[in-house]
Amino acid sequence: MDKIKMTTPLVEMDGDEMTRILWQMIKDELLLPFVDLKTEYYDLGLEYRNETNDQVTMDSAEATKKYGVAVKCATITPNAARMTEYDLKEMWKSPNGTIRAALDGTVFRAPIQVKGISPCVKNWEKPITLARHAYGDVYKNTEFKVPGAGKAELVFTGEDGKEMRQTIMDFDGPGIIQGIHNKDKSIESFARACFNYALDTKQDLWFATKDTISKIYDHNFKDIFQDIYDKEYKDKFDAAGIEYFYTLIDDAVARVMKAKGGFIWACKNYDGDVMSDMVSSACGSLAMMTSVLVSPTGVYEYEAAHGTVQRHYYKHLNGEETSTNSVATIFAWTGALRKRGELDGNKELQEFADKLEKATLDTLESGKMTKDLALICDMQDVTVLNSQNFIKAIRETLEAAL
Ligand code: NAP
Ligand code: MG
Fold this sequence. Notes:
ten-stranded mixed sheet; alpha/beta; globular; single chain; two-stranded antiparallel ribbon; binds NADP nicotinamide-adenine-dinucleotide phosphate
């Protein structure tokens, strides 16, 4: 069989620990035998980030803007323990944060659903995709404890020196205060990323805030979404037969629990943080979750939602057997290959991505899986495989299908 050709390179961002091991196995067993893989390789492993003073992360983000599609392996975000473990020059920033800032994106996460591993919410027939705004609000707050009685005020001083001032509270004793913000520009990017993703995946888009209580702050999110929808997207949504739906956050939560799934749920930063953990754990495992960062200009970066699985890596280094789930990392590759295929009009590449995903799901549905899934699945005959043999089992399914 001839290998599938690629015309434009994918930006490949290698990573750390157990996921770096899986990365190579996936390439060797599931990609290189079938695709004439063209990538521009960036080693985001912590050692090389340290060696290049993190320049490699910046370069990989620039390359992503240039080519439009990237696939990223999980990476270590350094903390104090990693400083000693890797003898780091500095506590380098989170690569995900750096890439997100460079691409001004929104993160979309959806569970990968398989027969035999059912969500605890039994009416969720189709995946619910969460779109999380990743800028501002309580994640970039200013807060302090009020020591005792006194007046707390909110003050804005314009460049022209003009002041806006409001009393927050006349305290009669100790308490707490907090200041948060967001920027119209960031909310506009978030809105466009959501509308584009809905059109791309032909799914309805839900958005919810607490605008009845937060009549200016949250209302601003609602207004910006509505304004951009009316001006730029309404006709496209009508043509695609999909819907944009705004409701109050309480109503959205209640409706989500009763819904069949198959839509995108756009959330403000905090709501997205909390609700994506709820949706993913209701669906079984972080390793059964796709994650893609989409910029408002249509640049895509695919990754797994989980980390580098450090505990398994240390077992692996000790020569012990591991049973690490590679599904999310495989789906990061298929997502990127399919998008590359779409942008290049390369049908064969798109079909290969579909077949590899199907082979992965078929392998799971035949009862072959890693340990994490065996613990939560409701099938009778289950074979627990190690990291390598699970990937080999997918290869067998794939070869039979090709
Ligand atoms: P983690 O890598 O997500 O793993 C936490 C635990 O979840 C594992 O110990 C394992 O549980 C289970 N797990 C996660 N992925 C799994 C998989 N594919 N297959 C089987 N089990 C899986 O989180 P962490 O250990 O807290 O973080 C490790 C490193 O990852 C940190 O340095 C952190 O900075 C980094 N991180 C990176 C990203 C990213 O690049 N996107 C995201 C999050 C964290 P058991 O041990 O019980 O088997
Ligand atoms: Mg969270």
